[in-house]
Amino acid sequence: MKYTITYGSSQEVGLIGKGRFTEKKPFLITMFGRGVKHIVTCFVAIMLCLNIARAQEEDFKVMLNFKVNSYELDTAYGRNAEELKKFDHFVQTLKNDTLTRITRIELSGAASPEGSFIKNQRLAHRRILCLEKLIRSKVSINDTIICYNDSLIHWNKLKAMVDYSFPEQYKDTLQSVILSRMDQLDNMYNDSIAMNVIKRMYKGKVYQVLVNHYLPDMRNACAVFLLLHKPQPKVVEGILQPTIVEVKPQPAETDTLIHNEVDSIPQSGVVMSTVESWQPKWYIKTNAVALAFAISNVAAELDVANHWSVTLPVYYSAWNYFSHKVKFRTLAIQPEVRYWFSEESDGLFAGAHLGLAYYNFATGGDYRTQDHSRETPAWGGGLSIGYRLPLSRNSRWKMEFSVGAGVYPAKYDKFINGHNGLLAYTDRKTYVGLDQLNISIAYTFDTFRKGGKR
Predict the structure, then answer these.
(1) What confidence score (pLDDT) does residue 273 get?
(2) Are the C-beta atoms of residues 226 and 103 closer than 8 Å to each other?
(3) 54, 76, 92 - which closes a domain
(4) Looking at residue 322, which CATH number applies to its domain?
(5) At 432, which helix (H) or strand (E)?
(6) What's the rounded Cα separation, in Å, for the pair 282 and 278?
(7) E-assigned strands of 144-245?
(8) Quick one: which of 78, 186, 381, 389 has the fewest CB in 10 Å?
(9) E strands in 132-280
(10) Is residue 416 part of a domain?
Protein backbone atom coordinates (compact mmCIF):
# COMPACT_ATOMS: atom_id res chain seq x y z
CA MET A 1 0.00 0.00 0.00
CA LYS A 2 1.30 3.40 -0.86
CA TYR A 3 -0.16 6.92 -1.02
CA THR A 4 1.05 10.37 -1.82
CA ILE A 5 -0.42 13.72 -0.54
CA THR A 6 0.59 16.91 -2.33
CA TYR A 7 0.19 19.99 -0.08
CA GLY A 8 -0.85 23.29 -1.45
CA SER A 9 -2.81 21.64 -4.20
CA SER A 10 -6.52 21.45 -4.62
CA GLN A 11 -6.34 17.66 -4.99
CA GLU A 12 -5.39 14.62 -2.93
CA VAL A 13 -3.85 11.85 -4.97
CA GLY A 14 -3.38 8.32 -3.59
CA LEU A 15 -3.67 4.68 -4.21
CA ILE A 16 -4.98 2.12 -1.77
CA GLY A 17 -4.86 -1.20 -3.36
CA LYS A 18 -6.80 -0.95 -6.51
CA GLY A 19 -8.95 1.98 -5.17
CA ARG A 20 -8.47 5.73 -5.87
CA PHE A 21 -9.30 8.88 -3.78
CA THR A 22 -12.00 11.18 -5.28
CA GLU A 23 -11.08 14.77 -6.08
CA LYS A 24 -12.62 17.48 -3.78
CA LYS A 25 -12.04 21.16 -2.89
CA PRO A 26 -10.70 22.12 0.56
CA PHE A 27 -13.32 23.19 3.15
CA LEU A 28 -12.07 26.81 3.68
CA ILE A 29 -11.92 27.59 -0.04
CA THR A 30 -15.43 26.25 -0.54
CA MET A 31 -16.88 28.36 2.28
CA PHE A 32 -15.00 31.49 1.10
CA GLY A 33 -16.38 31.09 -2.41
CA ARG A 34 -19.94 30.76 -1.14
CA GLY A 35 -19.53 33.90 1.05
CA VAL A 36 -18.26 35.99 -1.85
CA LYS A 37 -21.16 34.81 -3.96
CA HIS A 38 -23.71 35.87 -1.32
CA ILE A 39 -22.06 39.29 -0.85
CA VAL A 40 -22.03 39.99 -4.57
CA THR A 41 -25.67 38.91 -4.87
CA CYS A 42 -26.75 41.24 -2.02
CA PHE A 43 -24.76 44.14 -3.47
CA VAL A 44 -26.36 43.71 -6.89
CA ALA A 45 -29.83 43.52 -5.32
CA ILE A 46 -29.25 46.73 -3.32
CA MET A 47 -28.03 48.60 -6.39
CA LEU A 48 -31.05 47.43 -8.37
CA CYS A 49 -33.39 48.65 -5.61
CA LEU A 50 -31.66 52.00 -5.50
CA ASN A 51 -31.91 52.36 -9.26
CA ILE A 52 -35.58 51.41 -9.18
CA ALA A 53 -36.29 53.95 -6.43
CA ARG A 54 -34.35 56.60 -8.26
CA ALA A 55 -36.25 55.85 -11.43
CA GLN A 56 -39.62 56.10 -9.67
CA GLU A 57 -39.17 59.48 -7.94
CA GLU A 58 -38.05 62.72 -9.56
CA ASP A 59 -38.51 66.41 -9.06
CA PHE A 60 -38.81 69.42 -11.34
CA LYS A 61 -38.10 73.03 -10.37
CA VAL A 62 -39.16 76.31 -11.94
CA MET A 63 -38.17 79.75 -10.60
CA LEU A 64 -39.46 83.13 -11.77
CA ASN A 65 -37.88 86.49 -10.93
CA PHE A 66 -39.71 89.73 -10.23
CA LYS A 67 -38.85 93.40 -10.42
CA VAL A 68 -38.36 95.35 -7.21
CA ASN A 69 -41.63 96.07 -5.35
CA SER A 70 -43.58 94.04 -7.94
CA TYR A 71 -45.54 90.80 -7.92
CA GLU A 72 -46.55 90.92 -11.59
CA LEU A 73 -44.84 88.55 -14.01
CA ASP A 74 -42.69 90.18 -16.69
CA THR A 75 -41.91 87.44 -19.21
CA ALA A 76 -38.87 89.31 -20.57
CA TYR A 77 -37.29 90.02 -17.17
CA GLY A 78 -34.18 88.09 -16.13
CA ARG A 79 -34.33 84.38 -17.00
CA ASN A 80 -38.14 84.22 -16.99
CA ALA A 81 -38.46 83.44 -20.71
CA GLU A 82 -36.08 80.50 -20.36
CA GLU A 83 -37.84 79.24 -17.21
CA LEU A 84 -41.28 79.51 -18.84
CA LYS A 85 -40.10 77.58 -21.88
CA LYS A 86 -38.68 74.88 -19.62
CA PHE A 87 -41.96 74.74 -17.69
CA ASP A 88 -43.95 74.43 -20.92
CA HIS A 89 -41.80 71.49 -22.00
CA PHE A 90 -42.38 69.87 -18.61
CA VAL A 91 -46.15 70.29 -18.96
CA GLN A 92 -46.16 68.74 -22.44
CA THR A 93 -44.05 65.82 -21.24
CA LEU A 94 -46.36 65.30 -18.29
CA LYS A 95 -49.37 65.38 -20.58
CA ASN A 96 -47.96 62.65 -22.83
CA ASP A 97 -46.66 60.44 -20.01
CA THR A 98 -49.58 58.49 -18.54
CA LEU A 99 -47.32 56.69 -16.03
CA THR A 100 -46.20 59.86 -14.23
CA ARG A 101 -48.21 61.91 -11.76
CA ILE A 102 -47.54 64.88 -9.46
CA THR A 103 -47.56 63.91 -5.79
CA ARG A 104 -46.61 67.26 -4.22
CA ILE A 105 -45.97 70.89 -5.20
CA GLU A 106 -43.88 73.09 -2.91
CA LEU A 107 -44.39 76.81 -3.54
CA SER A 108 -42.09 79.38 -1.97
CA GLY A 109 -41.73 83.14 -2.35
CA ALA A 110 -38.95 85.53 -1.46
CA ALA A 111 -38.15 89.22 -1.35
CA SER A 112 -34.96 91.22 -1.12
CA PRO A 113 -34.29 92.81 2.28
CA GLU A 114 -35.00 96.43 1.38
CA GLY A 115 -38.17 97.82 2.91
CA SER A 116 -40.19 96.82 5.97
CA PHE A 117 -40.87 93.27 7.08
CA ILE A 118 -44.63 93.54 6.50
CA LYS A 119 -44.15 94.87 2.98
CA ASN A 120 -41.69 92.07 2.14
CA GLN A 121 -44.08 89.51 3.60
CA ARG A 122 -46.87 90.71 1.32
CA LEU A 123 -44.59 90.73 -1.72
CA ALA A 124 -43.42 87.17 -1.06
CA HIS A 125 -46.98 85.93 -0.58
CA ARG A 126 -48.28 87.67 -3.72
CA ARG A 127 -45.40 86.28 -5.78
CA ILE A 128 -46.42 82.81 -4.64
CA LEU A 129 -49.99 83.54 -5.76
CA CYS A 130 -48.71 84.74 -9.13
CA LEU A 131 -46.77 81.52 -9.72
CA GLU A 132 -49.68 79.40 -8.47
CA LYS A 133 -52.00 81.18 -10.92
CA LEU A 134 -49.64 80.32 -13.79
CA ILE A 135 -49.42 76.66 -12.74
CA ARG A 136 -53.19 76.27 -12.37
CA SER A 137 -53.70 77.78 -15.83
CA LYS A 138 -51.74 74.90 -17.35
CA VAL A 139 -52.15 71.89 -15.04
CA SER A 140 -55.17 70.50 -13.22
CA ILE A 141 -54.07 70.06 -9.60
CA ASN A 142 -55.68 69.31 -6.25
CA ASP A 143 -55.34 71.80 -3.40
CA THR A 144 -54.27 69.03 -1.02
CA ILE A 145 -50.91 68.47 -2.75
CA ILE A 146 -49.79 72.12 -2.52
CA CYS A 147 -47.46 73.26 0.24
CA TYR A 148 -46.75 76.99 0.80
CA ASN A 149 -43.61 78.54 2.24
CA ASP A 150 -43.32 82.32 2.71
CA SER A 151 -39.56 82.21 3.20
CA LEU A 152 -39.38 86.01 2.70
CA ILE A 153 -35.62 86.72 2.70
CA HIS A 154 -32.94 84.11 1.93
CA TRP A 155 -30.06 85.46 3.99
CA ASN A 156 -28.23 82.15 3.55
CA LYS A 157 -28.55 82.51 -0.24
CA LEU A 158 -27.17 86.06 -0.07
CA LYS A 159 -24.26 84.80 2.03
CA ALA A 160 -23.48 82.09 -0.53
CA MET A 161 -23.54 84.60 -3.41
CA VAL A 162 -21.28 87.00 -1.52
CA ASP A 163 -18.84 84.17 -0.70
CA TYR A 164 -18.68 83.19 -4.35
CA SER A 165 -18.13 86.43 -6.21
CA PHE A 166 -18.29 89.60 -4.10
CA PRO A 167 -15.35 92.05 -4.40
CA GLU A 168 -12.65 91.06 -1.92
CA GLN A 169 -12.15 94.54 -0.44
CA TYR A 170 -15.76 94.58 0.81
CA LYS A 171 -16.45 90.89 1.40
CA ASP A 172 -15.33 90.47 5.04
CA THR A 173 -17.20 93.53 6.31
CA LEU A 174 -20.39 92.56 4.50
CA GLN A 175 -20.19 88.96 5.67
CA SER A 176 -19.98 90.05 9.30
CA VAL A 177 -23.28 91.92 8.95
CA ILE A 178 -24.97 88.99 7.17
CA LEU A 179 -23.78 86.48 9.77
CA SER A 180 -24.98 88.76 12.57
CA ARG A 181 -28.42 88.91 10.93
CA MET A 182 -28.54 85.12 10.45
CA ASP A 183 -27.86 84.66 14.18
CA GLN A 184 -31.04 86.64 14.97
CA LEU A 185 -33.54 85.27 12.47
CA ASP A 186 -36.23 85.13 15.15
CA ASN A 187 -36.41 88.94 15.17
CA MET A 188 -38.20 89.90 11.97
CA TYR A 189 -37.50 93.64 12.33
CA ASN A 190 -33.71 93.21 12.14
CA ASP A 191 -33.87 93.15 8.32
CA SER A 192 -34.20 96.92 8.08
CA ILE A 193 -31.49 97.40 10.72
CA ALA A 194 -29.06 95.21 8.79
CA MET A 195 -29.82 97.00 5.51
CA ASN A 196 -29.27 100.42 7.11
CA VAL A 197 -25.83 99.27 8.25
CA ILE A 198 -25.03 97.99 4.75
CA LYS A 199 -26.16 101.27 3.14
CA ARG A 200 -23.60 103.18 5.20
CA MET A 201 -20.66 100.91 4.29
CA TYR A 202 -17.97 102.55 2.18
CA LYS A 203 -20.25 105.51 1.41
CA GLY A 204 -22.90 103.33 -0.18
CA LYS A 205 -20.63 101.43 -2.57
CA VAL A 206 -21.41 98.02 -1.05
CA TYR A 207 -25.13 98.67 -1.24
CA GLN A 208 -24.93 99.71 -4.90
CA VAL A 209 -23.11 96.48 -5.79
CA LEU A 210 -25.82 94.48 -3.99
CA VAL A 211 -28.65 96.36 -5.69
CA ASN A 212 -27.17 95.97 -9.18
CA HIS A 213 -25.89 92.40 -9.09
CA TYR A 214 -27.18 90.38 -6.11
CA LEU A 215 -30.56 91.52 -4.78
CA PRO A 216 -32.46 90.94 -8.09
CA ASP A 217 -31.86 87.18 -7.73
CA MET A 218 -33.56 87.26 -4.31
CA ARG A 219 -36.89 88.53 -5.65
CA ASN A 220 -38.48 85.32 -6.87
CA ALA A 221 -41.10 82.64 -6.56
CA CYS A 222 -40.21 78.96 -6.89
CA ALA A 223 -42.20 75.76 -7.47
CA VAL A 224 -40.81 72.27 -6.92
CA PHE A 225 -42.85 69.40 -8.39
CA LEU A 226 -42.37 65.97 -6.84
CA LEU A 227 -43.19 63.25 -9.40
CA LEU A 228 -43.92 59.55 -9.10
CA HIS A 229 -43.34 57.16 -12.01
CA LYS A 230 -45.37 53.98 -12.13
CA PRO A 231 -43.29 50.97 -13.30
CA GLN A 232 -43.81 49.78 -16.87
CA PRO A 233 -45.86 46.54 -16.87
CA LYS A 234 -43.74 43.51 -17.77
CA VAL A 235 -44.71 41.27 -20.69
CA VAL A 236 -44.09 37.53 -20.13
CA GLU A 237 -42.55 35.88 -23.17
CA GLY A 238 -44.68 33.28 -24.88
CA ILE A 239 -47.97 34.80 -23.70
CA LEU A 240 -49.86 36.85 -26.20
CA GLN A 241 -50.89 40.14 -24.62
CA PRO A 242 -54.30 41.42 -25.65
CA THR A 243 -54.39 44.79 -27.32
CA ILE A 244 -55.99 47.33 -25.02
CA VAL A 245 -57.47 50.40 -26.61
CA GLU A 246 -57.81 53.25 -24.14
CA VAL A 247 -60.79 55.44 -24.85
CA LYS A 248 -60.35 58.85 -23.28
CA PRO A 249 -63.56 60.77 -22.58
CA GLN A 250 -63.86 64.27 -23.93
CA PRO A 251 -63.06 66.74 -21.17
CA ALA A 252 -65.87 68.82 -19.77
CA GLU A 253 -65.82 72.50 -20.53
CA THR A 254 -65.31 73.32 -16.86
CA ASP A 255 -62.28 71.06 -16.39
CA THR A 256 -58.89 72.70 -16.13
CA LEU A 257 -56.67 70.95 -18.70
CA ILE A 258 -53.20 71.41 -20.03
CA HIS A 259 -53.29 74.68 -21.94
CA ASN A 260 -51.43 76.13 -24.86
CA GLU A 261 -47.67 76.20 -25.05
CA VAL A 262 -45.84 79.04 -23.39
CA ASP A 263 -44.52 80.07 -26.82
CA SER A 264 -47.87 81.81 -27.24
CA ILE A 265 -46.88 84.18 -24.42
CA PRO A 266 -45.51 87.39 -25.92
CA GLN A 267 -41.77 87.72 -25.49
CA SER A 268 -41.60 91.37 -26.48
CA GLY A 269 -41.04 92.65 -22.97
CA VAL A 270 -44.69 93.48 -22.30
CA VAL A 271 -45.55 92.96 -18.64
CA MET A 272 -48.23 90.30 -18.26
CA SER A 273 -50.05 90.02 -14.94
CA THR A 274 -50.79 86.40 -14.06
CA VAL A 275 -52.56 87.24 -10.82
CA GLU A 276 -55.42 89.63 -10.41
CA SER A 277 -54.28 92.87 -8.80
CA TRP A 278 -57.35 92.84 -6.54
CA GLN A 279 -59.36 89.96 -5.17
CA PRO A 280 -62.39 90.74 -2.96
CA LYS A 281 -62.71 89.15 0.45
CA TRP A 282 -65.09 89.38 3.37
CA TYR A 283 -64.45 89.27 7.09
CA ILE A 284 -66.22 88.31 10.31
CA LYS A 285 -65.05 90.26 13.39
CA THR A 286 -65.72 90.85 17.05
CA ASN A 287 -64.60 93.77 19.21
CA ALA A 288 -62.71 92.73 22.34
CA VAL A 289 -63.21 96.15 23.99
CA ALA A 290 -67.01 95.78 23.85
CA LEU A 291 -66.78 92.18 25.06
CA ALA A 292 -64.82 93.42 28.07
CA PHE A 293 -67.91 95.50 29.00
CA ALA A 294 -70.18 92.47 28.47
CA ILE A 295 -71.60 93.94 25.25
CA SER A 296 -72.06 91.20 22.69
CA ASN A 297 -71.11 92.22 19.20
CA VAL A 298 -70.35 90.99 15.71
CA ALA A 299 -69.31 92.76 12.53
CA ALA A 300 -69.16 91.85 8.85
CA GLU A 301 -66.93 93.56 6.31
CA LEU A 302 -66.84 93.23 2.52
CA ASP A 303 -64.33 94.46 -0.06
CA VAL A 304 -66.40 96.30 -2.67
CA ALA A 305 -63.63 97.77 -4.86
CA ASN A 306 -59.90 98.18 -5.01
CA HIS A 307 -58.91 100.04 -1.80
CA TRP A 308 -62.56 100.26 -0.62
CA SER A 309 -64.62 98.21 1.83
CA VAL A 310 -67.83 98.52 3.88
CA THR A 311 -68.36 97.18 7.39
CA LEU A 312 -71.44 96.80 9.59
CA PRO A 313 -70.99 96.16 13.34
CA VAL A 314 -73.96 95.37 15.62
CA TYR A 315 -73.81 95.80 19.43
CA TYR A 316 -76.34 94.46 21.94
CA SER A 317 -76.54 94.39 25.72
CA ALA A 318 -79.61 93.78 27.91
CA TRP A 319 -78.28 93.19 31.42
CA ASN A 320 -77.09 95.00 34.53
CA TYR A 321 -73.59 95.05 35.99
CA PHE A 322 -74.07 93.23 39.32
CA SER A 323 -76.71 95.79 40.42
CA HIS A 324 -79.87 97.37 38.98
CA LYS A 325 -78.25 100.79 39.52
CA VAL A 326 -75.31 100.05 37.22
CA LYS A 327 -76.07 99.12 33.64
CA PHE A 328 -75.32 99.84 30.01
CA ARG A 329 -78.07 98.44 27.84
CA THR A 330 -77.91 99.19 24.16
CA LEU A 331 -78.78 98.15 20.64
CA ALA A 332 -76.51 99.96 18.22
CA ILE A 333 -75.26 99.78 14.65
CA GLN A 334 -72.45 101.75 13.02
CA PRO A 335 -72.09 101.16 9.25
CA GLU A 336 -68.79 102.45 7.89
CA VAL A 337 -67.09 103.00 4.53
CA ARG A 338 -63.31 102.51 4.59
CA TYR A 339 -60.49 103.52 2.30
CA TRP A 340 -57.41 101.28 2.48
CA PHE A 341 -53.99 102.61 1.55
CA SER A 342 -52.94 99.14 0.33
CA GLU A 343 -54.61 96.92 -2.26
CA GLU A 344 -55.09 93.95 0.07
CA SER A 345 -57.26 95.73 2.70
CA ASP A 346 -54.46 95.51 5.23
CA GLY A 347 -52.41 98.13 6.96
CA LEU A 348 -53.63 101.71 7.42
CA PHE A 349 -57.19 102.80 6.64
CA ALA A 350 -59.47 105.81 7.09
CA GLY A 351 -63.23 105.56 7.46
CA ALA A 352 -66.46 107.52 7.58
CA HIS A 353 -69.40 106.09 9.52
CA LEU A 354 -73.00 106.63 10.58
CA GLY A 355 -74.27 105.60 13.98
CA LEU A 356 -77.63 104.78 15.54
CA ALA A 357 -78.06 103.63 19.13
CA TYR A 358 -80.88 102.89 21.54
CA TYR A 359 -79.56 103.21 25.07
CA ASN A 360 -80.42 102.84 28.75
CA PHE A 361 -77.53 103.35 31.15
CA ALA A 362 -76.82 104.21 34.77
CA THR A 363 -73.52 104.57 36.59
CA GLY A 364 -74.76 104.15 40.16
CA GLY A 365 -75.74 107.79 40.68
CA ASP A 366 -79.16 109.34 41.36
CA TYR A 367 -80.39 109.22 37.75
CA ARG A 368 -80.76 106.74 34.92
CA THR A 369 -80.54 107.97 31.29
CA GLN A 370 -82.65 106.50 28.50
CA ASP A 371 -83.53 107.53 24.94
CA HIS A 372 -86.78 109.51 24.93
CA SER A 373 -89.88 107.31 25.00
CA ARG A 374 -87.72 104.46 23.64
CA GLU A 375 -88.42 105.84 20.17
CA THR A 376 -85.73 108.50 19.68
CA PRO A 377 -82.33 106.82 19.44
CA ALA A 378 -79.18 108.85 19.19
CA TRP A 379 -78.03 109.10 15.61
CA GLY A 380 -75.18 110.84 13.89
CA GLY A 381 -71.83 110.06 12.30
CA GLY A 382 -68.10 110.60 12.35
CA LEU A 383 -64.65 109.70 11.10
CA SER A 384 -62.22 106.98 12.09
CA ILE A 385 -58.69 105.79 11.48
CA GLY A 386 -57.22 102.35 12.05
CA TYR A 387 -54.73 99.64 11.18
CA ARG A 388 -55.06 95.93 10.43
CA LEU A 389 -52.31 93.30 10.42
CA PRO A 390 -52.16 89.53 9.84
CA LEU A 391 -51.88 87.15 12.80
CA SER A 392 -51.40 83.81 11.00
CA ARG A 393 -49.00 82.65 8.28
CA ASN A 394 -51.85 82.22 5.78
CA SER A 395 -53.18 85.73 6.65
CA ARG A 396 -56.65 84.37 7.43
CA TRP A 397 -56.64 85.55 11.04
CA LYS A 398 -56.14 89.29 11.50
CA MET A 399 -56.11 91.88 14.28
CA GLU A 400 -57.61 95.32 13.81
CA PHE A 401 -57.19 98.54 15.78
CA SER A 402 -59.30 101.65 15.22
CA VAL A 403 -60.48 104.81 16.95
CA GLY A 404 -63.14 107.26 15.84
CA ALA A 405 -65.04 110.36 16.89
CA GLY A 406 -68.44 111.73 15.89
CA VAL A 407 -71.36 114.06 16.50
CA TYR A 408 -74.70 112.74 17.86
CA PRO A 409 -77.79 114.89 18.64
CA ALA A 410 -79.84 113.14 21.34
CA LYS A 411 -83.15 113.61 23.13
CA TYR A 412 -83.27 111.61 26.33
CA ASP A 413 -85.21 111.08 29.57
CA LYS A 414 -83.78 111.18 33.08
CA PHE A 415 -85.31 108.75 35.58
CA ILE A 416 -84.77 108.30 39.30
CA ASN A 417 -82.17 105.51 39.48
CA GLY A 418 -84.16 102.84 41.28
CA HIS A 419 -86.63 100.08 40.69
CA ASN A 420 -89.40 101.55 38.49
CA GLY A 421 -87.94 105.01 39.13
CA LEU A 422 -90.09 107.98 38.15
CA LEU A 423 -89.34 110.29 35.21
CA ALA A 424 -87.45 113.33 36.47
CA TYR A 425 -87.13 115.39 33.27
CA THR A 426 -86.46 115.28 29.52
CA ASP A 427 -83.49 117.00 27.94
CA ARG A 428 -81.69 117.49 24.63
CA LYS A 429 -77.96 117.51 24.07
CA THR A 430 -75.48 117.07 21.23
CA TYR A 431 -72.69 114.63 22.01
CA VAL A 432 -69.31 115.36 20.41
CA GLY A 433 -66.50 112.96 21.16
CA LEU A 434 -65.21 109.40 20.98
CA ASP A 435 -67.69 107.00 19.38
CA GLN A 436 -65.46 104.10 18.27
CA LEU A 437 -62.75 102.13 20.03
CA ASN A 438 -61.92 98.77 18.45
CA ILE A 439 -59.46 96.01 19.17
CA SER A 440 -60.96 93.33 16.97
CA ILE A 441 -60.13 89.78 15.93
CA ALA A 442 -61.16 89.00 12.35
CA TYR A 443 -61.27 85.92 10.11
CA THR A 444 -60.99 86.23 6.33
CA PHE A 445 -63.10 84.42 3.72
CA ASP A 446 -62.72 84.38 -0.06
CA THR A 447 -65.72 85.62 -2.02
CA PHE A 448 -65.28 82.77 -4.51
CA ARG A 449 -63.86 79.26 -4.41
CA LYS A 450 -60.31 79.06 -5.74
CA GLY A 451 -58.73 75.77 -6.66
CA GLY A 452 -58.12 73.17 -9.27
CA LYS A 453 -60.15 70.15 -10.21
CA ARG A 454 -61.07 68.05 -7.18
Answers:
(1) 39
(2) yes
(3) 54
(4) 2.40.160.20
(5) strand 423-446
(6) 13
(7) 146-152, 220-229
(8) 186
(9) 146-152, 220-229
(10) yes
Cα gap 436→441, rounded to integer Å: 15
The domain in which residue 14 lies consists of: 2-54
Q: Write out residues in the chain with pLDDT < 70, as ranges.
A: 1-57, 150-154, 181-192, 232-278, 448-454
Q: b/e per residue, 405-416, with b = 16+ CB within 10 A?
A: ebebebebbbbe
Identify the helix (H) or strand (E) that includes residue 285.
strand 281-287
Is residue 361 in some structural domain?
yes
For every residue of 383-405, DSSP letters joined together read EEEEEEEE-STTS-EEEEEEEEE
Answer whether residue 105 is part of any domain.
no
Does 177 reside within a domain?
no
One DSSP character per residue, 321-371 reads: EEETTEEEEEEEE--EEEEESSTTS-EEEEEEEEEEEEEEEEESSSEEEEE
Q: How many other CB atoms sit within 10 Å of the CB of residue 289?
A: 13
pLDDT of residue 47: 59
Which of these three, 54, 81, 96, is where a domain ends? 54
Residue type, 153: I
Helix-strand-coil split of the chain, %, nearest 5: 30, 40, 35
Domain count for the chain, please give it. Answer: 2
Which strands sit side by side in the sheet containing 100-110, from one edge to the other?
Answer: 57-65, 220-229, 100-110, 146-152
In which element (H, E) is residue 269 found?
A: none
